Amino acid sequence: MSVIGSIPHPLIRLDGVSKSFGSFAAVRDVSLQVREGEILGLIGRSGAGKSTLLRLINLLERPDTGRVFVAGQELTRLGSTELRAARRQIGMIFQQFNLLQNATAAENVAFPLRLDGKASRAEIAARVDECLALVGLQDKAASYPAQLSGGQKQRVAIARALAPRPAVLLCDEPTSALDAETTRELLATLADINARLGVTLVIVTHELPVVQALCRQAAVVENGRIVEQFAVAEAAQGQSTLAREVAYA
Ligand SMILES: Nc1ncnc2c1ncn2[C@@H]1O[C@H](COP(=O)(O)OP(=O)(O)OP(=O)(O)O)[C@@H](O)[C@H]1O
């Protein structure tokens, strides 16, 4: 099923992707296209397969069948060295932030750049400053994760994900551990990153307000399939009751 129709030169394209865990089919024959600069929400009930679908985009989960393309490259054909290089195009953030606890905010942001081994110390330091500024955390460069609030930790995670200048940012329930006010601020930061840097966002959430606040497109995931896809502005006018039911279930 092609849910966003046929987009010329989509930035992300999944073709007939399936993934099972043992005998359980978590994602079933999903096809999806995401245009460059898009903000797409994947919504649905717990266990519907949203996170698995997201992780198939950067091959954190390898599909059993189907093909995955990002920025014109078929990831499902790449060997491990090429895949590592291709993944620089794809940043990711998680519900529980996944920061290195024994490293400062600046060291966390520098981590992917150090791993990459291409930039000089001075270049890394400049990029770290830039990325912490993007998320409004320059003054926390020397703080450790334990000294930061949940919202600040997620901002460090965003800065770290952006450091290698990805084209795509995958967000797996990025606000589920945050209160309402912090959620609003974080979603504004993500919208700003999309607008200023043109980074394409794909965000998994079970909260419809998150989709309404941030996304332009939404896809409803149910039993491992995309069962509905819609433009969020239309849904706000009351055209998608299914989405509302699913998200609030
Ligand atoms: N590594 C794994 N091994 C076994 N089963 C898994 C694994 N990852 C996911 N699953 C199962 O696949 C199904 C889909 O999981 P997934 O995390 O993609 O759902 P989700 O829609 O993101 O739900 P949630 O919001 O609860 O995370 C669930 O039933 C889950 O238990």
TrEMBL record:
The keyword Nucleotide-binding applies. GO terms for molecular function: ATP binding. Keywords: Amino-acid transport, ATP-binding, Cell membrane, Membrane, Nucleotide-binding, Translocase, Transport. This is ATP-binding cassette domain-containing protein. PANTHER family: AMINO ACID IMPORT ATP-BINDING PROTEIN (PTHR43166), METHIONINE IMPORT ATP-BINDING PROTEIN METN (PTHR43166:SF30). InterPro entries: AAA+_ATPase, ABC_transporter-like_ATP-bd, ABC_transporter-like_CS, MetN_ABC_transporter-like, P-loop_NTPase. Residues 12-248 form the ABC transporter domain. Transmembrane segments: none annotated. SMART domains: AAA (SM00382). Pfam families: ABC_tran. The keyword RNA-binding does not apply.
